[in-house]
């Protein structure tokens, strides 16, 4: 085990969280593409995970992989209060509107959820004493712009989803 790389907050021998390290995690978007897999993996690694999701697609989950799922809170992330975030060591924020047609339907709501809601959640987490806030924007951040000549995807500000994280873009 001398060559084993240890994940921060985990024991190299057991894979379980070490005492005093990050162990209680809130995963927003826990029923989304990435959140579904991530939250199950964290539970199976021994973390105390709570999932947060609107539940809009609960009845249409793409697959049931048989893994343990976290306990769930069903609400809009924008409605989470500071008191509800107290006690978490980390927030992994994956909840956003992510596909371009949905984002184009109501650009203001997309901006309110993806940008304003994400910033507000991070600020509330900080006020609640959460030590780590991990933000992962959706793939729609980059928009559907096709391939560049060098084979890499070009960033595009052509869609509301790509504009809603508040960062300047070059088309």
Report the CATH superfamily: NAD(P)-binding Rossmann-like Domain
Please tell me the overall pLDDT. 75
Assign the structural class, choosing from mainly alpha, mainly beta, alpha/beta, alpha+beta, or little secondary structure.
alpha/beta
Share in helix: 25-40%
| CATH T-level topology | Rossmann fold
CATH class: Alpha Beta
> Which radius of gyration do the C-alpha atoms yield?
18 Å
Sheet-strand content, in percent, reads 5-15%
Profile the largest sheet. 5 strands, parallel
Layout of SSEs?
Blueprint: E1 24-28, H1 33-44, E2 48-53, E3 71-74, H2 82-85, E4 90-93, H3 100-105, H4 107-127, E5 132-135, H5 160-163
Parallel strand pairs: 1-2, 1-4, 2-3, 4-5
Give the gist of this structure:
27% of the residues lie in helices and 13% in strands. With 171 residues, it is α/β, with parallel strands linked by helices.
Describe the structure.
The protein is of the alpha/beta class. It has one domain: NAD(P)-binding Rossmann-like Domain (Rossmann fold, 3-Layer(aba) Sandwich), CATH 3.40.50.720. 27% of the residues lie in helices and 13% in strands. It has helices at residues 33-44, 82-85, 100-105, 107-127, 160-163; strands at 24-28, 48-53, 71-74, 90-93, 132-135. It has a five-stranded parallel beta sheet, sandwiched between helices. β1, α1 and β2 (48-53) form a beta-alpha-beta unit. The longest helix has 21 residues, at 107-127. The model is unreliable at 1-8, 153-158 and 167-171 (pLDDT under 50).
